[in-house]
Amino acid sequence: MCFTEHRYEDAQLLLDRALEFNSRDSECYFLLYRIHGGDRAKSLASLEYLDNAIAGGSWYETEPSLAGRERGRVLLQIRRFDEAVQELSMASRQRFDDVEVPILLARSLVYSGDISGAIDVVRLAVQQFPANPTLNIYFAYYLNWKNGVSSALDFLDLVSRQLPGEPQIYLESAFLADEAERKALYLRKFFETGGKDPRAPLIAVEAGLEPTEDHLRRFFTDGGNRHLDLLERLYKAVGHDEHAQSLLEEMAAGYDGERIVDSDWDGFSEERHYFVNGALSSVHLDRNQDGRPEMVVHLSEGQIVAASLFEDNPSLLTDPGATARRECKLLYHPYPYLTQVVYKTASEVRTYEIEPTGFEHALPVSRSTFPGGIKLPDRASFIEERMALAQAYTLNVHSRSGEKAWDLLDGTVVRFTADHRAILVGHIVTV
């Protein structure tokens, strides 16, 4: 009952108690998997629960092929793509009537780099499940890649006549269409069939379709206020229309809670921006979408005051019980002048005051298009920054002169000049 009523904490407690009496109860483990399976931060734990359900015997013997599908789903979530492909390929030979299996398998193949393999899966699956919107959309992606937009749109037009009540078909067509008139036709059908997706009014505004005010209101009604990347695009799309800009800022103002960036729209965000009374308070960067941020930036009154960068314990990749993460916390006053560095590991915390003051360490962030926000680095620049940090806990800072300086963490700060000489410029005092 607790599970069906979404009272997951109560359900977890009762299931844990049940397992104290029967540690091999496969149904209990499977329910625990269901509780944690939708939370990427707990995906490793959910995989362990699922494996225990399989090992328990009774549930696995009842639905052996379902285990492969669910294992594949979790492995896809935690980005172990080759394993996901292996698991889902086996499940596809067992669950011929399960449309989810080819969908998950195609996604896993794409992420693993096997585009031709994904195409083969979709081509076969769309023949077996012709009424499935997702597979038809995937097949349209294939046609667009192979033959161009016109071929993909013709196919989606055919599908929309066979499945006239599926709004997602019209939305995907609107994404692909270049002509404003055709795009407007698809969007109108999307709304008429009950479609709700903030990307639809966004692309209407981007295409210059009127009335702009109605599209702006629909964007917020359909949940667009939670999606910071869409908000930024919308703000850019209204351009110099002062009335539209004013209306947009009015509807977005005073936001409390979380705004996300989910670029591939898979339900797992790469960024989480937290707002209090409309002001940005912190940003969590999770580029690999594993539920554990690699960077957290803290702000006060619009200014950066601290940033934490994390490195995973390698055992986290194989041991769901491992929690130790290495953290480097940088404190600024004012930004970008670094005043303190804190290193945290599983066994120790080290705090350093920077002396003399005046060292600059600008984070790889910038102001976003949308007022009051900040833009975090893309994958390439972020990895570059992290590599600099990872070298024996070396901290990359800059002196006032602009020449590179490095904190060697042995009490010495040196400046590297153009002729590769190291000059002492200060020291770090442990507190």
Short description:
The chain is an alpha+beta fold. It contains 17 helices and 14 strands.
Write structural notes for this entry:
- The chain has 431 residues and is of the alpha+beta class.
- Among the domains are: 58 residues, no CATH class; 178 residues, no CATH class.
- Helices cover 47% and strands 19% of the residues.
- The chain has 17 helices and 14 strands.
- The strands form two sheets. A twelve-stranded antiparallel beta sheet has the order 1-2-3-4-5-6-7-8-14-13-12-11, with helices on both faces. It has a two-stranded antiparallel sheet with strand order 9-10.
- Helix 3 packs antiparallel against helix 5, helix 5 packs parallel to helix 7 and helix 13 packs parallel to helix 15.
- The C terminus is likely disordered.
